UniProtKB/TrEMBL annotation:
This is Prepilin-type N-terminal cleavage/methylation domain-containing protein. InterPro entries: N_methyl_site, Pilin-like. It comes from the Bacteria. Keywords: Membrane, Transmembrane, Transmembrane helix. The keyword Lipid metabolism does not apply.
Length: 196
């Protein structure tokens, strides 16, 4: 703090004047700010990766349960049942569809949506894969046979993957942030096996 003496109408006035410290930031202050920014960035990135891994795992579990439910519905309930897997906007959608009889249209009975950001969702038919579907562009329809519980059709467009190229099964692959979740669909038994 600095005192300034001046004369005002014949009186001497003492005034306090603050000095401004215009020296800028010290190196230590800059390093502390940079360290804080780095920590916040790392924590945010880890949180985002955990979120995407959780979404991918949930997508895999919902896929498994929906296909299992499709087999049960086809063999025990009236009407025709199918599962449709597709991308709608920014989401992957797994829908359980039902129609009463051959003269009616399919209606959605149940649906699951999952954000598609940073998640790769594909289907490989057989090992090694002879055919592949990518759900970012392709739509798949799965149907079961009512009498024996076998997979009747796994259709992408007009292509039916069941027993194509002597494949006995197909694998759904969901990838995100270095993590992979898979579910295998066996055509002869209609069984779905998930590894995660």
């Amino acid at each position: 703090m600095k005192f300034i003496w001046r004369c005002e109408m014949g009186k001497i006035v003492c005034e306090k004047k603050r000095q401004l410290n215009n020296h800028g930031f010290s190196l230590l202050e800059l390093l502390v700010v940079m360290a804080i920014i780095a920590v916040v960035t790392v924590v945010t990135m880890i949180g985002i990766n955990v979120l995407y891994k959780g979404n991918a795992k949930k997508l895999n579990k919902n896929l498994y349960s929906t296909i299992s439910e499709l087999k049960t519905n086809t063999m025990s309930k009236a009407g025709d049942w199918q599962v449709v897997i597709k991308k709608d906007g920014g989401d992957y959608v797994i829908s359980m569809m039902w129609k009463k009889d051959s003269s009616s249209e399919y209606v959605e009975k149940d649906s699951y949506r999952c954000g598609a950001g940073r998640i790769s969702f594909t289907y490989e038919n057989g090992t090694p894969s002879a055919a592949k579907a990518d759900f970012s562009t392709d739509e798949m329809v799965i149907e079961y046979a009512r009498d024996n519980g076998q997979v009747k059709a796994v259709k992408v467009g007009s292509d039916n993957y069941v027993n194509k190229d002597d494949a006995q099964s197909g694998t759904f692959i969901i990838k995100t942030s270095g993590t992979e979740y898979t579910s295998e669909l066996w055509y002869a038994t209609g069984k779905v096996i998930t590894t995660n």
